[in-house]
């Protein structure tokens, strides 16, 4: 691809998240039959199709959302959204960049990355009900008593937006709900895999062990750790652990470890004061060359170009559907 073509591609993927007045939040109810090109931002994003189906590609992984499913996209994940049909979808975006200073929030995002797909048909009913109740509570707090503004009415559907300020402490209430939402998901992440449960006791024990391994890796992935040392930590032989880990995660141990490092590097790329070399070593790579090669293979972009896709550096012109109307 020539320089002109690459420049055009880069422009097409930029998005500007415009939060509600005086908050770090945005929520809207979308019924448009339109697609959203690849983009990333430091907000978490929750997509909840109430009607119809949706397809979302996050970091080269495809998530096919059925009606009622919930998708939580982690911060700094490149994602693309495809509307397969008309239907109501609820979107919530929230800036967690300061809150990730809490180790368990940061750990939860690493375990969920690039996204957590909560399937209605697999999720235990009590957990699913609680998650939906929290989303409805956020909607009530966000929209308040003021009627939502209907945008882009027509054959392609419309979006419901709210541009009024939240009630006092409304933002705090919403963030407290989101943190409970993330905590419940983190505690039950193994239940959202979409596989049939197995009653075999050894399988259950292995799942518990491997879940602990993933939690351990989320805290030590930037360090110089090996397959042998982690297998010993889990209490398995190297070869037995390697097989169990691949079955549990769907990838090899080193692929999983490398992806964790790349995910962390993506969040570091939102900091313009860090050089690519600094980021490569902070993320646990042995060299900048190895980091760049792995990053390009994972995301399709070298780190320098991926950084250019961040809304903070190159936002799109204001989308009239989501523009802040407070100046109107």
Question: Can you walk through the features of this model?
Answer:
The chain is 42% helix and 16% strand. The chain is of the alpha+beta class and 328 residues long. The strands form two sheets. It has a seven-stranded antiparallel beta sheet with strand order 9-6-3-8-1-11-10, covered by helices on one side. The protein has a four-stranded antiparallel beta sheet with strand order 2-7-4-5, with no helix packed on it.
Q: What is the chain-wise order of helices and strands?
A: HEEEEEEEEHEHEEHHHHHHHH
Instruction: Let me know the number of strands.
Output: 11
The whole-number mean of residue pLDDT values reads: 79
The quaternary state of the protein chains shown equals single chain
**Could you say which structural class the secondary elements and strand pairing correspond to?**
alpha+beta
Let me know the largest β-sheet.
7 strands, antiparallel
How helical, in percent, are the residues?
A: 40-55%
The rounded distance between the terminal residues' Cα atoms is 42 Å
Instruction: Write down the Rg.
Output: 20 Å
Strand order, sheet with most strands = 9-6-3-8-1-11-10
Short description:
The protein contains eleven helices and eleven strands. The protein has helices spanning 3-12, 103-112, 125-143, 170-187, 201-220, 227-234, 238-249, 253-268, 276-282, 288-299, 303-308, and strands at residues 25-30, 36-39, 43-49, 54-58, 61-65, 70-73, 79-83, 89-95, 115-118, 149-151, 159-161.
